[in-house]
Automatic annotation (TrEMBL):
Belongs to the peptidase M32 family. Broad specificity carboxypetidase that releases amino acids sequentially from the C-terminus, including neutral, aromatic, polar and basic residues. It comes from the Bacteria. Its EC number is 3.4.17.19. It is an enzyme of class 3 (hydrolase). It catalyses: Release of a C-terminal amino acid with broad specificity, except for -Pro. InterPro entries: Peptidase_M32_Taq. This is Metal-dependent carboxypeptidase. One of its GO terms (molecular function) is metallocarboxypeptidase activity. Keywords: Carboxypeptidase, Hydrolase, Metal-binding, Metalloprotease, Protease, Zinc.
Length: 490
């Protein structure tokens, strides 16, 4: 199998360079000096030029024509390489490089403009990002039956499309709104009070991350404006953020990112630096973070343990019982911030972003109209007027770094999580007993065994169905939400 062996040797170097590029991005968002941004943009563009040249090297086409896979993993490697090779051929090298340069700069513009609540400082660079992504989407759509938005979605959810997402949202919206209406009409949930020092929050988050299976010998936890996970294989890093008046922000962001990170750490080591040596899609990735954060971390059983542990760490937290703490963790409200949204409202946040970014990419709306469109839609969907840009269209980092087509995968991940956790609870009948001890290892071990170890061996939906033994459906998620919040808000 000389063609296959040559192909995989070449690809191993490309994968390693991709990891270096990712580490450079992590550095930019965590510890890079602010004044370094212009040079970092040139460095990112240079790396992208090298990567694009390798990803479109004519030898790849020859090897792919000649290669014969030795096994199922080899078949999957060839599937992933063919898909990426033919996509990359459609994108001109100068466009790939310019996207890397502009999005690197845009991230810094977004962070500073967000801090200053300065829309005018952000819109010009966002307009340039949108222009480039429209151009890329149009190039990727050539020769397919996809529009530019669907073509961009393939970077995050291979096989996904906007029509399927819209159908999913249409099915979810009425049942979510019914849950929200009942919750908002009920007695307001308790809230925590007190001072929660950063050092204590970070120490507790590291303790919890370890319990959820995160390997700190192959990773680290740092602070960032917007929490994220970066890397795969032997170097997978996570971030969180701290508000000393609200410890849930730090703790649950950390659990969420641990879900992403343990997926990458859990891939079988034989797939290291191969095309299948990572999570298969962002929807499947999000299934892990949402399972960890919500269905385990916000369960009544786990909240009982966390209540006691937080009192150990912080002293009086202003809530007098495990049940009130559970209600505080799962309070339903029409807040501005997606990453802090409750499980009921979260998908409504995604629906808003999905509609707006699709309109942007398809040219149905221009960047100058985005803030007004966001504010009008938010008021309509949530009944609250946006007060400042950081609570509105500037809250998320995604658009500044060009991640158009990414947002719908968050809701798809919730749907996947519903299927996975229903299967995990079927197979682990005593799971709540473990969670009540602060021990999620039975469930996280189930995820590693049934899903994580395979990386991208199977396409996204097939991966979920293989793990659960059931056909994909939104019903497990909606049934879970109705039962949980029906109990919290009878």
């Amino acid at each position: 199998m000389p063609a296959y062996d040559d192909l995989m040797a070449f690809q191993r170097t490309t994968e390693a360079l991709g990891q270096v590029a990712g580490r450079t991005g992590w550095d930019q968002e965590t510890v890079m000096p602010r004044g370094s941004a212009p040079q970092r943009a040139e460095e990112m563009a240079a790396l992208e030029e090298v990567l694009h040249a390798r990803r479109t090297d004519p030898r790849l086409g020859d090897w792919l024509d000649e290669a014969h896979a030795p096994d199922a993993a080899g078949d999957a490697n060839l599937r992933e390489l063919r898909r990426s090779y033919h996509r990359n051929l459609k994108v001109p090298a100068n466009l790939a490089s310019e996207l890397a340069r502009v999005t690197s700069l845009a991230q810094g513009h977004w962070a500073s403009a967000r801090a200053a609540e300065d829309t005018a400082a952000f819109l010009p660079v966002l307009a340039e990002v949108v222009r480039l992504r429209r151009e890329e989407g149009a190039a990727l759509a050539v020769g397919t039956n996809m529009d530019a938005y669907d073509a961009l979605m393939q970077d995050y959810e291979p096989g996904g499309n906007a029509a399927d997402m819209a159908t999913m949202f249409d099915a979810m919206r009425p049942r979510l709104l019914a849950i929200r209406e009942r919750a908002l009409a009920a007695e307001e949930a308790p809230t925590l009070s007190g001072h929660f020092p950063q050092a204590n929050q970070m120490a507790l988050s590291r303790e919890i991350a370890t319990a959820f299976g995160y390997d700190f010998t192959r990773g680290r936890l740092d602070l960032a404006v917007h929490p994220f996970s970066s890397g795969s294989g032997l170097d997978v890093r996570i971030t969180t953020r701290v508000d000393e008046d609200d410890p849930f922000n730090c703790i649950y962001s950390a659990i969420h990112e641990v879900g992403h990170a343990t997926y990458e750490q859990g891939v079988d080591a034989t797939h290291l630096l191969t095309p299948i040596g990572r999570g298969v899609s962002m929807g499947v990735h999000e299934s892990q973070s949402r399972s960890y954060e919500n269905q385990m971390g916000r369960s009544e059983a786990y909240c009982g343990w966390l209540y006691g542990r937080m009192r150990d760490v912080f002293g009086d937290i202003g809530v007098g019982s495990e049940r009130d703490f559970y209600r505080a963790v799962n309070a339903v409200g029409s807040g501005f911030i997606r990453t802090e949204a409750d499980e009921v409202n979260y998908n409504l946040h995604i629906m808003l972003r999905f509609d707006l970014e699709r309109s942007l990419i398809l040219g149905e709306m221009e960047v100058g109209d985005l803030e007004t469109a966001w504010n009008d839609r938010f008021l309509s969907d949530f009944g609250v007027a946006v007060d400042v840009p950081s609570n509105g269209f500037m809250q998320d980092v995604h658009w500044s770094v060009g991640l158009m087509g990414y947002f719908p995968t968050y809701s798809l991940g919730n749907l996947f999580a519903g299927c996975l956790m229903a299967a995990a609870r079927r197979d682990i009948p005593d799971l709540d007993t473990d969670l009540a001890r602060g021990d999620p290892s039975a469930a996280t071990g189930w995820m590693r065994k049934n899903l994580q170890q395979f990386g991208a061996l199977r396409p996204p939906r097939e991966a979920i169905e293989h793990a659960t033994g059931e056909a994909l459906s939104a019903e497990p998620l909606l049934t879970y939400l109705e039962a949980k919040f029906g109990d919290l808000y009878p």
